[in-house]
Design a protein that fits this description.
Beta-Lactamase; elongated; 5-stranded mixed beta sheet; 5-stranded antiparallel beta sheet; Heat Shock Protein 90; single chain; 3 domains
Length: 462
């Protein structure tokens, strides 16, 4: 599909077991043993109702693949030539057999004396001798697939059926034979190519970005099923593209909002640093320490726009936040860290622990005057990374935990962390919350050891 650069490409019949290396079905009688396919890379733009919108350069262009069972031709050919001893098959211009009554010959290369003439002429009739028997050969090249449909009819049997009515005139007989041959060739090729042309035209429309294309379900049950599948596929593709387009719009709006919120961050850093120097000069070390922590947090929030960040940087942000909150709630709680050193070599989702730490300090310890303990732990367990945020605060019941994780919950930060982890790493990873009233809350965050965003450890984080 990539080599054709947006054009349709037909792939001749192949053995499904050989193509996909599925040896156990080789000796089984399965109806999808032999298949042929058409592929096309979908166009680089879509029509959203008002204008054409191009795919981003970093977006992988989808490829449309339609598979046909080889018996698609057999059902068309069966009983199409009412002459005993006749034969029919479909071959490529290189002589590879696409369809044949004898399935053992499918995918093999067939030696035909007239193959070169067939390539040059495209369509026609001729008489050849095969095993001392004269055969009338009719052939036509499809403008869709460029494959050659061939019908071979024993000449003596053909003449024996029409000769009684044509004995009076030999010339007239020859003309009738030629006409019959042309008609037969036309009927055969038309019955084969007509349904394919319908799908081909629809596929071209889809390739041009018209994902609203729908085909009326006509023909045999098999063909109706094929059309139904095509229509369903188009509907799903259109839905996915619409969702992707809406996501891009939301991302752009979020980026614009973020830019509006920056408000010359260098001025804010300089102002905070100046306030810190004044505090030190006036021997207000505690205020200076809080301002330095706030300045680092602000710089991390504004400058680092990535979703995946080095764990060390995110941990420094979290420690700055805890430092400020410790000053705010002086003597109300203390924090204990137990982080395995090897975790600092990895990357994590940005702000993945901060909402839970904030929840423990603001809500878990709201009725505590002193003695609050917040434990933050992290370690590697087989192929996973485990992080625990645990407090001895007031806790909460199961109903409150359920409400926090609901889509319409007011706890946006906690819900978004779980959702981001599942999107980035899969449904088996995420957040679990356990809590007992008046005893405390335990939050477990599970991340994979390796993933698509961090195949190489981030040594620069150290």
């Amino acid at each position: 599909a990539k080599q054709e650069e947006g054009k349709l490409h037909w792939i001749p019949t192949y053995d499904y077991s050989d193509m996909f290396n599925i040896s156990y079905i080789k000796d089984l009688n399965v109806d999808y043993r032999y298949m042929f396919s058409v592929v096309e890379m979908i166009g680089s733009s879509i029509y959203d109702g008002s204008e054409y919108v191009g795919f981003d350069s970093d977006t992988e262009r989808p490829i449309l693949i339609i598979n046909y069972k080889e018996d698609f031709f057999q059902k068309v050919f069966n009983n199409s030539i009412p002459i005993e001893g006749s034969n029919y098959y479909v071959i490529t211009k290189e002589g590879q057999i696409v369809s044949h009554k004898d399935q053992s010959k499918i995918t093999s290369i067939m030696s035909i004396p007239l193959l070169n003439d067939m390539r040059k002429k495209g369509s026609g009739t001729d008489i050849i001798t095969i095993d001392r028997e004269k055969m009338l050969i009719c052939y036509d090249t499809s403008r869709v697939t460029e494959w050659i449909s061939v019908a071979m009819i024993p000449l003596d049997r053909l003449l024996s059926q029409v000769l009684p009515a044509l004995r009076l005139n030999t010339v007239f007989t020859a003309m009738v034979v030629i006409i019959i041959s042309i008609v037969l060739s036309y009927l055969i090729t038309d019955r084969i190519t007509k349904p394919i042309k319908i799908l081909t035209q629809a596929t071209k429309n889809v390739g041009d970005g018209n994902f609203g294309e729908r085909i009326k379900e006509v023909g045999s049950n098999e063909f109706k099923e094929l059309i139904h599948t095509f229509n369903s596929m188009n509907k799903k593709i259109q839905k996915l593209i619409t969702e992707n387009y809406e996501i891009k719009i939301r991302e752009t709006e979020a980026e614009i909002t973020a830019l509006n919120l920056q408000l010359d961050p260098h001025f804010m850093y300089n102002a905070l640093n100046l306030i810190s120097l004044v505090s030190i000069r006036n021997q207000q070390d505690e205020i200076s320490d809080m301002i330095v922590s706030l300045s680092k947090m602000l710089k991390y929030t504004v400058k680092n726009k990535k979703d995946i960040v080095p764990f060390k940087e995110d941990m420094e942000y979290l420690q700055g936040y805890i430092n400020i909150m410790s000053k705010r709630f002086d003597g109300k709680f203390k924090v204990k860290f137990n982080i395995e050193e090897s975790l600092y070599f990895y990357s994590v989702p940005k702000f993945f622990m901060q909402p839970f730490v904030e929840n423990s300090i603001v809500h878990g310890f709201d009725s505590v005057k002193s003695g609050g303990v917040l434990k933050i732990s992290g370690w590697i367990d087989d192929d996973s990374r485990c992080f625990i945020i645990e407090d001895n605060g007031k806790g909460m019941d199961e109903q409150r935990i359920h409400e926090i994780l609901q889509p319409d919950s007011s706890s946006i930060g906690i819900k978004n962390v779980d959702k981001r982890i599942k999107i980035l790493y899969g449904g088996e990873f995420g957040v679990k919350i356990k809590s007992i009233l008046n005893r405390g809350t335990r939050v477990e965050i599970k991340l994979p050891l390796e993933n698509a965003e961090e195949n190489i450890r981030n040594e620069a984080a150290l």
